């Protein structure tokens, strides 16, 4: 199983085109979107190529391959443009290993405020726009960073879960964070 993670698109068409091209090249079966899909939000500037209807149209072509959760900038009006559900604050995915993967945006649950997780479970979230892939207190914390508004000097990035490895990767192929899932 190979999962491709993207977060914090914020309605940027060029960023969405870039991430979908990388998703197609990756060979992943599922695109996991960790919120803030169409709207840039009041605290962010208007992103380059801001075009939420075109982003929705492009993502809808992959609707049967997407698992998405709602971010703090996502609304019911946004959902009206999308052909895949994204209004849940979280989703659970069972991994073949028996570990549970908790997907959320990060504004409600995150590395500091986790839901009830067992030892070895994973939480994947965006929101901070800062890449992370690490084992912390017996649980795996994963943040693919941001495609549109990377922070703390990091480059735009996405995430992969493949062969028991969590990786955060830039579009130039640089690995920003990586951890082995035991």
From TrEMBL:
Keywords assigned: Metal-binding
Query: InterPro entries, from UniProt?
Result: Calcineurin-like_PHP_lpxH, Metallo-depent_PP-like, MPP_YfcE, Phosphodiesterase_MJ0936/Vps29
GO molecular function per UniProt: hydrolase activity; metal ion binding
EC annotation? 3.1.4.-
**Superkingdom, taxonomy of origin:** Bacteria
List, separated by semicolons, the cofactors it needs: a divalent metal cation
Name all Calcineurin-like phosphoesterase domain ranges.
1-162
Q: Matching Pfam families, A to Z? A: Metallophos_2 (PF12850)
Indicate the family of this protein: Belongs to the metallophosphoesterase superfamily. YfcE family.
In Swiss-Prot or TrEMBL terms, this protein is called Phosphoesterase
What's the source species for this entry?
Vibrio aquaticus
Q: What is the lineage of its organism?
A: Bacteria, Pseudomonadati, Pseudomonadota, Gammaproteobacteria, Vibrionales
């Amino acid at each position: 199983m190979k999962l491709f993670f993207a977060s914090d698109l914020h309605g940027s068409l060029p960023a969405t085109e870039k991430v979908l091209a990388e998703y197609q090249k990756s060979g992943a079966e599922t695109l996991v979107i960790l919120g803030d899909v169409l709207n840039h939000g009041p605290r962010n500037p208007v992103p380059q190529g801001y075009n939420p209807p075109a982003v929705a149209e492009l993502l809808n072509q992959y609707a049967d391959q997407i698992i998405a959760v709602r971010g703090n900038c996502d609304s019911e009006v946004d959902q009206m443009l999308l052909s895949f559900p994204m209004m849940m604050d979280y989703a659970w995915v069972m991994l073949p290993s028996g570990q549970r993967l908790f997907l959320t945006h990060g504004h409600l649950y995150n590395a500091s405020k986790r839901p009830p997780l067992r030892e070895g479970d994973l939480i994947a979230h965006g929101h901070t726009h800062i890449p992370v892939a690490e084992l912390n207190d017996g649980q795996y914390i994963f943040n693919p960073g941001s495609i549109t508004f990377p922070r703390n000097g990091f480059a735009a990035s996405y995430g992969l879960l493949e062969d028991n490895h969590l990786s955060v990767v830039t579009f130039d192929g640089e690995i920003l964070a990586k951890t082995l899932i035991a």
